[in-house]
């Protein structure tokens, strides 16, 4: 469960980081987002990435936890990159799904 | 005469990446496969029974060793795990009782009954492992280490120069435009994979040097442990310096000389149960020195996990009385960092999710290198250097598509070569290299675009049909594996099928691109970016 | 690829490239070896610890020397700096022992 929380939080973090960038806002929402949204996405990215790190470290200890967190975060960024390339409109839904799953699995862990 | 720093670094990136690229592609692909080395070996030995309770396996293994090698120098028992279902035993005969010298003997046992299993002769995942770190060179092994060290320096150079050239990488993160023309798309793929997993690429490349560093960079050992001879002379013969160095590092292994008085071995199962509590995790392997002697020592090693270090925690017991033996296991902080770097590279500790993360990240590195090689050719296609371009393109086909095909051919050979064939394991390896050589020859003769498409399809078919081949040649087909919860076999079959699908997709995309059909409309128009011109090579 | 890119490259002739590549591969290795030897002797750690630390760091020096060989304003400058660093490290190491 903790591992699933790390995965979903990492995906959420990568998706938020993409939403924060103007180029990707255009492809996903058709127009640039307001400054408030940009800040919210930035905070969401940092918060989700930090939460993923906390869960990974709490589950596997500092050494293995950080290794797991870095690799999973990198893979999540690749996944978000692929979604943005082929199905950009799906990304908000996938991000919402990831947030929901992260909440469930995080609570279970 | 002057060029800007970034232009110089871009030039170096292109050439270091090209010259090191093929070797690095092989190292990364073989290393990625080695993440599942044990699992691959298990798939290639379908005669192995299912895993059993490790403690039962331990008793059965000890009984077998007591029968076959009661007075060996050393026994090693590797317990079955979810990664490899059989019990692996090894023993080293005493040097003074055999003419063959202290050569290690190995057997695989049915974990439950202790019966010796003779699976088909195969090198299994070990072939990829040896390819990965020493290019399958064994005579002398040092030559392989030097080659992989040199390739790693190309990787570090390419990574460092790539960082300098592509300095704005956070802005371009997530950008991959498959429909924007081939060079652009391949470059996007290269960058997406490079930037997203930059910590992985850097860490894996640098830590890969740790296992071989005292061979390729012996000068610190010579400076601190050598003798009066010139350093270059010592480098050719530094066994003495190296063993003085390892003696000086805290070596926690307890060694006792054989007493020569027979004494019964303490119940290993009881020791294993005691040790399991103190180690804080399952037991991976047990080594018994001087079994059945008054000076017997039992070393119980935790299954890798719970820490990065490549040297899992272990406990020692007197083999006769069963009393714990004290060990001062303190090693210095630098030695700890070194062990953690080593362990981080080897990933033996990785539990399923993290093991898959290593595998996928390794694939990402491999594809990044491959995409870089393709970008090199696409950039130069419009130019006039036909001869060199054609050579690079053919080597690209043989490596990027040919090497994976050769891996699939190796798996096919495992299932199709006759079981009683002499030198069967070597025969499988010959099939691997023959398949690779055949693709190289084919790529040399065919127009390169046709060779690309056809080899990709070949790899797709070879991987995609592996589950079918497995079903036809063994009784452990995918449906049976899934039904019985045998995720070792099922995992391999599914991964092979997914690999086949990925190659089919690649073949389809390349075929479409060659036909010149327009790709899907660019999903988002990206503003053109100013970019450093990647200088052309001198002619 | 623009013509200007190609034209600029002409500035690096074959001999220049060969000299820089030799500086990177050979000179860089010598710099790394000398720096490692020096560090192994001067690091204020236990002998085995200093040995391990110096060897672990050696590949950073090698990578830096490779980059310098191609970033230097000329091949001669690349060689001069590498020889100077290797010489200084060698002298420091010899004095320390």
Question: What's the helix count of chain A?
Answer: 4
Q: Using the CA coordinates, give the radius of gyration of chain C.
A: 17 Å
Low-confidence stretches of chain A: none
Shape assignment of chain C = elongated
Helix content percent band of chain C: over 70%
Q: How far from one another are the termini of chain C?
A: 54 Å
Which band does the percent of strand residues of chain C land in? under 5%
Spans of chain C of at least 5 consecutive residues whose pLDDT stays below 50 are 1-10
How far the N terminus sits from the C terminus of chain A, by CA atoms, comes to: 6 Å
Structural class of chain C: mainly alpha
Tally of DSSP β-strands of chain C? 0
Radius of gyration of chain A: 14 Å
Oligomer: heterotrimer
Indicate the percent of residues in helices of chain A.
over 70%
Question: Topology, pairings included?
Answer:
The complex is a heterotrimer of chains A (109), B (539) and C (97).
Chain A: H1 2-19, H2 22-29, H3 35-86, H4 91-108
Helix pairs in contact in A: 1-3, 1-4
Chain B: H1 5-34, H2 37-43, H3 54-68, E1 74-78, E2 87-92, E3 105-109, E4 116-117, H4 126-134, H5 141-165, H6 169-172, H7 182-196, H8 198-207, H9 213-216, H10 219-225, H11 231-236, H12 239-248, H13 268-279, E5 283-289, E6 297-302, E7 314-318, E8 324-325, H14 333-346, H15 352-380, H16 386-416, H17 424-445, H18 448-464, H19 466-473, H20 478-483, H21 487-515
Antiparallel strand pairs in B: 1-2, 1-5, 2-3, 3-4, 5-6, 6-7, 7-8
Chain C: H1 3-9, H2 14-42, H3 47-71, H4 75-96
Helix pairs in contact in C: 2-3, 2-4, 3-4
């Amino acid at each position: 469960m903790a591992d699933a929380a790390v995965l979903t939080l990492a995906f959420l973090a990568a998706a938020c980081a993409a939403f924060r960038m103007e180029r990707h806002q255009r492809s996903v929402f058709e127009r640039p987002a307001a400054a408030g949204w940009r800040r919210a996405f930035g905070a969401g990215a940092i918060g989700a990435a930090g939460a993923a790190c906390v869960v990974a470290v709490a589950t596997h200890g500092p050494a293995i936890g950080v290794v797991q967190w870095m690799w999973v975060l990198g893979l999540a960024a690749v996944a978000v990159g692929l979604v943005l390339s082929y199905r950009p409109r799906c990304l908000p839904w996938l991000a919402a799904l990831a947030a929901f799953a992260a909440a469930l699995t995080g609570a279970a862990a | 005469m002057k060029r800007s720093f970034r232009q110089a670094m871009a030039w170096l990136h292109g050439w270091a990446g090209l010259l090191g690229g093929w070797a690095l592609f092989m190292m990364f692909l073989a290393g990625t496969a080695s993440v599942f080395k044990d699992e691959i070996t298990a798939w290639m030995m379908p005669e192995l029974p299912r895993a059993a309770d490790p403690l039962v396996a331990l008793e059965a293994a000890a009984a077998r060793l007591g029968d076959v090698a009661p007075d060996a120098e050393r026994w090693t028992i590797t317990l079955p795990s979810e990664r490899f279902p059989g019990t692996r035993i090894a023993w080293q005969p005493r040097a003074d009782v055999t003419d063959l010298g202290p050569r290690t003997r190995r057997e695989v046992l049915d974990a439950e009954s202790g019966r010796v299993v003779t699976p088909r002769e195969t090198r299994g995942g070990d072939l990829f492992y040896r390819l990965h770190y020493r290019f399958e060179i064994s005579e002398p092994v040092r030559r392989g280490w030097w080659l992989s060290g040199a390739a790693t320096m190309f990787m570090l150079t390419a990574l460092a120069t790539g960082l300098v050239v592509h300095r704005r990488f956070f802005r371009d993160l997530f950008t991959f435009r498959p429909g924007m023309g081939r060079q652009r798309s391949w470059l996007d793929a290269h960058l997406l994979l490079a930037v997203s997993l930059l910590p992985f690429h850097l860490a894996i490349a640098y830590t890969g040097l740790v296992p071989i560093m005292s061979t390729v960079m012996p000068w610190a050992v010579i400076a601190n442990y050598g003798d009066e001879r010139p350093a270059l002379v010592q480098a050719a013969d530094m066994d003495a310096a190296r063993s003085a160095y390892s003696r000086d590092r805290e070596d926690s292994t307890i060694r006792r000389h054989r007493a020569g008085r027979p004494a019964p071995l303490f119940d290993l199962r009881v020791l294993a149960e005691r040790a399991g509590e103190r180690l804080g995790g399952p037991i991976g392997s047990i080594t018994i020195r001087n079994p059945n002697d008054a000076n017997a020592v039992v070393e119980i090693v935790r299954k890798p996990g719970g820490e990065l270090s490549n040297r899992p925690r272990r406990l020692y017991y007197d083999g006769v009385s069963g009393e714990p033996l004290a060990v001062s296991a303190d090693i210095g902080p630098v030695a700890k960092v070194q062990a953690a770097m080593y362990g981080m590279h080897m990933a033996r500790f990785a539990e399923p999710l993290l093991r898959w993360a290593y595998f996928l990240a390794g694939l990402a590195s491999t594809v990044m290198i491959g995409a870089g090689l393709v970008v090199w050719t696409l950039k130069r296609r419009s130019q006039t250097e036909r001869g060199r371009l054609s050579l690079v393109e053919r080597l690209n086909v043989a490596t990027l598509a040919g090497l994976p095909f050769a891996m699939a051919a190796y798996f096919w050979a495992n299932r199709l070569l006759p079981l009683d064939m002499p030198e069967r394991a070597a025969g499988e390896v010959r099939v691997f290299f023959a398949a690779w050589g055949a693709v190289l020859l084919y790529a040399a003769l065919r127009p390169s675009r046709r060779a690309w498409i056809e080899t990709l399809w070949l790899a797709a078919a070879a991987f995609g049909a592996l589950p079918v081949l497995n079903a036809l040649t063994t009784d452990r087909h995918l449906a049976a594996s899934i039904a019985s919860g045998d995720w070792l076999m099922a995992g391999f079959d599914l991964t092979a099928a997914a690999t086949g699908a990925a190659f089919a997709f690649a073949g389809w995309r390349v075929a479409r691109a060659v036909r010149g059909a327009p790709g899907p409309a660019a999903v988002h128009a990206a503003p053109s970016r100013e970019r450093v011109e990647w200088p052309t090579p001198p002619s | 690829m623009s013509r200007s890119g190609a034209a600029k490259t002409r500035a690096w002739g074959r001999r220049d490239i060969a000299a820089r590549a030799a500086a990177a591969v050979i000179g860089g290795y010598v710099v790394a070896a000398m720096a490692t030897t020096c560090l192994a002797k001067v690091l204020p750690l236990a002998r085995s610890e200093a040995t391990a630390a110096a060897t672990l760091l050696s590949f950073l020096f090698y990578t830096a020397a490779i980059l310098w060989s191609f970033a230097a304003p000329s091949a001669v400058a690349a060689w001069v700096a590498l020889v100077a660093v290797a010489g200084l490290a060698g002298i420091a190491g010899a004095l320390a022992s």
